[in-house]
Amino acid sequence: MACACCTNPGQRNVGVTKIDSGKLQEIQALRFAASAQLFVGEAEPKFFKGITSPSEHYELNAAWQKDQLVFAFRDKLGRSGTLALPRPNTVSIFEVDPRLGEPDRGTGPSLYKEWKLTSKPAGSGIFSVGLGPSQLLTLIMQGRGNSCTSSIDFTHWTLVMQGRKAGFTFFGDLVSTR
Questions:
Q1: What is the biggest distance separating any 2 CA atoms in the chain, rounded to whole angstroms?
Q2: Residues forming beta bridges with residue 132, ordered by sequence position
Q3: What is the pLDDT of residue 129?
Q4: Is the dihedral of CA 77, 51, 30, 61 positive or negative?
Q5: At residue 103, does pLDDT exceed 80?
Q6: Which of 49, 142, 149, 168 is most exposed, with minimal Cβ within 10 Å?
Q7: Cα separation, 161 vs 113, whole angstroms
Q8: What are the structural domain ranges in the chain?
Q9: Using one digit for the tens of pLDDT, what is the confidence trace for 54-84?
Q10: CB under 8 Å to 107, separation ≥6 — which residues?
């Protein structure tokens, strides 16, 4: 019996593909929770380059404006800035059976998933010091589901800035709209 969305033990899908209208619709359907956290690990926020006066916690408003996803951050002291991720032409896809030994409900194991969008960022405010031609901004959407990916599969996000002028990572939750 064929099942288009079913998964199989050991299944793995890793690749880069063009963003077609279906993928774009799912990406644009994502809704971000109203808070974001700077990943600090064992470090203190003040040691991160590319953010003027970094804080560990931020209010977040993320929305599509034309062909870019704009993240507006504000800390508890009112310091703010934006990071804009222009929509790339491709998405990096990673889907794998994590082999957690969960019982099969008849459609196969739940896959761990990541979709990654990477572009040269734009920005303002507290992020101005970390912008430049050598910088890359990557949005990673994380979640679980079957072989037919939709926006409701993704539950968390990570935003990574990399380059000579800035290096930091934000993370937070996605809110289901269905």
A1: 59
A2: none
A3: 95
A4: positive
A5: no
A6: 49
A7: 21
A8: 12-175
A9: 999 999 999 999 999 999 999 999 999 999 9
A10: 3, 5, 6, 7, 146
Nearest to 83 by CA among 116, 120, 54: 120
Rounded Cα distance between 85 and 72, Å, is: 11
Structure tokens given for 112: 């761990």
Our measurement of the distance from residue 62's CA atom to the centroid of its chain's CA atoms, rounded to an integer in Å, reads 11
Contact criterion met (CB below 8 Å) for 81 and 55: no
Tell me if 166 sits within 8 A of 112, measured CB to CB. no
Tokens (6 digits) for 144: 């679980």
Residues ≥6 apart with Cβ < 8 Å to 59: 34, 35, 36, 73, 74, 75
- Whole-model pTM? 0.92
Q: Judge whether residue 178 has pLDDT over 80.
A: no
**pLDDT at position 139:** 98
Beta bridge pairs of residue 72:
61, 82
